[in-house]
């Protein structure tokens, strides 16, 4: 709330105080649309509207609820961990109440509403990227800062830790390389300098419409990569992947698989640890952490692995044509149609993620 909503409001306030401000460009997320199907247009959000259409979004009320919950937890002498968990649960509860699937897309949507409602005479352009992955070309292929989104699954799979995932293999995974997002930003700055519009202008930065990628494609690329480039564990032994990650398309079947194959081992390890005076405490806690992380990641990334929409790029296509007219289309390439996904993941993204982790 403080970063994505109040932060956006503060930046807009600062922009209004700049006498020669030409525009304010804001980076949001394509997933402010929530769990939607069909072609999703580049249209701005209206203040107070919700995705479930049965509630009204009052931001002052949301901030009041957050402050009240925080005070309540502090009064209960909650630990830092309990405070974090409590606030995360509240965020998820409020997001789902209004139709969003997670706190990130919920607060990003509110940030967009704030900018649109309070913009006055400031030119506002919003870039909505889908899932940002490593660079396509610049500064070099495969550059990424940190382990992001899908990389958590890919790297865990390569290390032999994860052999299954929660998601629909046939749903679209909308990936867009980081440098293409940056090129969209730069092109929008060029196109909108001193081009005042009363309406907020939206650009999707995505691939689901023009160059769709499925979850099953991604898992196959990961299998092929680690088959050819097996991961070496800390003892130098090569870890062999025997098959692509197994998909579970329902949370019930996913939890049942964990309960059947992993929880009995955890209970056994807990018992052995207790009767041996906590000799295996480290092993027990590590296994417990891995199981909790697997469940948490599935809940966190559910909106992206069960996505059946396509982000329209009418405005983005106009922006590409505008760059072509001034011979900047090759310098600022943000056309996902040029990406050969297998080559990109096999030779740029996955090697880049592995290199970063090391």
From TrEMBL:
Residues 261-358 form the Fatty acyl-CoA reductase C-terminal domain. Catalyzes the reduction of fatty acyl-CoA to fatty alcohols. Its EC number is 1.2.1.84. This is Fatty acyl-CoA reductase. The keyword Lipid metabolism applies. It catalyses: a long-chain fatty acyl-CoA + 2 NADPH + 2 H(+) = a long-chain primary fatty alcohol + 2 NADP(+) + CoA. Signal peptide: none annotated. The lineage of its organism: Eukaryota, Viridiplantae, Streptophyta, Embryophyta, Tracheophyta. Residues 1-185 form the Thioester reductase (TE) domain. Belongs to the fatty acyl-CoA reductase family. The keyword Lipid metabolism applies. Keywords: Lipid biosynthesis, Lipid metabolism, NADP, Oxidoreductase.
């Amino acid at each position: 709330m403080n970063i994505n909503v109040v932060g956006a409001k503060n930046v807009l306030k600062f922009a209004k105080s700049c006498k020669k401000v030409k525009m304010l460009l804001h980076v949001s997320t394509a997933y402010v649309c929530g769990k939607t199907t069909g072609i999703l247009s580049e249209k701005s959000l209206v203040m107070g509207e919700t995705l479930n259409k049965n509630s009204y979004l009052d931001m002052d009320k949301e901030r009041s609820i957050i402050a009240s919950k925080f005070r309540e937890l502090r009064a209960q002498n909650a630990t830092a961990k309990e405070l974090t968990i409590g606030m995360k649960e509240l965020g998820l509860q409020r997001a789902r109440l209004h139709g969003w699937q997670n706190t990130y897309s919920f607060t990003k949507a509110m940030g967009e509403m704030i900018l649109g409602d309070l913009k006055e005479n400031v030119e506002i352009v919003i870039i909505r990227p889908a899932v940002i992955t490593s660079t396509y070309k610049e500064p070099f292929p495969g550059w990424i800062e940190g382990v992001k989104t899908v990389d958590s699954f890919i790297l865990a799979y390569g290390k032999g830790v994860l052999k299954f995932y929660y998601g629909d293999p046939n749903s679209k995974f909308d990936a867009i390389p980081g440098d293409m997002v940056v090129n969209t930003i730069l092109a929008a700055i060029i196109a909108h300098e001193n081009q005042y519009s009363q309406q907020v202008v939206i650009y999707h930065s995505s691939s689901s419409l023009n160059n769709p990628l499925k979850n099953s494609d991604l898992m196959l690329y990961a299998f092929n990569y680690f088959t050819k480039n097996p991961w070496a564990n800390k003892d130098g032994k090569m870890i062999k992947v025997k098959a692509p990650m197994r998909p579970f398309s329902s949370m019930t079947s996913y939890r049942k698989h964990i309960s059947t194959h992993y929880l009995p081992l955890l209970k056994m390890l807990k018992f052995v640890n207790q009767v041996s005076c906590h000799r295996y405490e480290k092993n027990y806690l590590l296994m417990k952490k891995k199981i909790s992380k697997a469940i948490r990641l599935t809940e966190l990334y559910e909106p992206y692995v069960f996505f059946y929409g396509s982000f329209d790029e009418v405005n983005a296509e106009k922006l590409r044509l505008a760059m072509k007219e001034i011979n900047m289309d090759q310098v600022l390439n943000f056309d996902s149609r040029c990406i050969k996904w297998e080559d990109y993941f096999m030779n740029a993204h996955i090697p880049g993620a592995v290199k970063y982790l090391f």
